[in-house]
Amino acid sequence: MEVFTLLEVIAVLWLTDKTVLITGCDTGFGNLLARRLDQLGLRVFAGCLTEAGVAELRQSCSERLQPIRMDVTSSDSVKTAFRVVEKAVGSKGLWGLVNNAGIVGSGVGAMEWSTVADYQAVIDVNLLGMIDVTRTFLPLLKRSRGRVVNVASVAGRLALNYITPYSVSKFGVEAFSDSLRRSMRCFGVKVHIIEPSFFRTNINNMEVIIRLLDNIWQRQSPETKKEYGQEFLQATKDVIIAGDGRKLDPVAVVDAMEHALCATRPRSRYVVGWDAWLVFVPISWLPTELGDLVLRVLSPKITPTCCRKGGE
């Protein structure tokens, strides 16, 4: 759980007058945050990709929470959501925007297995969707001198070569968020970055990722399969299975999101997860060669067949 100082736990006054829009509320962090803010008495617009997500939140939350269909990869969908929210908030504006929608996509496994289409699919949601939503809703945030909360990742600090498209998208989220924070300061709009490590949510469901890995392996050429070998594929699966038991409770991430939205003294950046603080962040601070060496020492030894036979 995130530890906050005494000054940091003081909440903003009149929270029940505030309105927040959250993307990616079908499951995971977004769903939990929508419920949390609803319980706190805030007015919440919960963007869901599916009708099932809309129905589930509508049935289980109060009338203050309004779930809406929202596909962040569709500008038309984003504009439709904007019109709904603008009509509801009027001159008060929007207090908070939480850009939470995200996917790992099908770009898992060895770096060179991912196609340009794999990169595009992940970037469309994790980065370009975030940019489109933010630019669209900025006028409402300026009215209230509100807050933007962007969900990045430790994979946006330290590139992880087994989920390269995801890392690329999250590095982009970091750059966009830093630029946005500096640009919006004069407007009174605050920007906060959430950097979770690995938490137990649908986005990194072990069984789903292993199925993706099998599908990606099947589409590789015979030459690539020979280079890497079945042992590489199985070793990668073993690492995924072993890591599943170390995933953390997502409540800690929701605590950080709530603090960014509700505290009088929110932080610009929230690093969430013990492994983030002990492993990912320190390695990201090291000189490149030393950081690479530490990663090689700490990472499971998974080597393609051709490299084991021919040496480094």
From TrEMBL:
It comes from the Eukaryota. Residues 1-21 form the signal peptide. Keywords: Oxidoreductase, Signal. InterPro entries: NAD(P)-bd_dom_sf, Sc_DH/Rdtase_CS, SDR_fam. It holds the Pfam family adh_short. One of its GO terms (molecular function) is oxidoreductase activity. GO terms for biological process: steroid metabolic process. SUPFAM superfamilies: NAD(P)-binding Rossmann-fold domains. Belongs to the short-chain dehydrogenases/reductases (SDR) family. This is Retinol dehydrogenase 7-like. It comes from Branchiostoma floridae (Florida lancelet). The lineage of its organism: Eukaryota, Metazoa, Chordata, Cephalochordata, Leptocardii. The gene is LOC118413147.
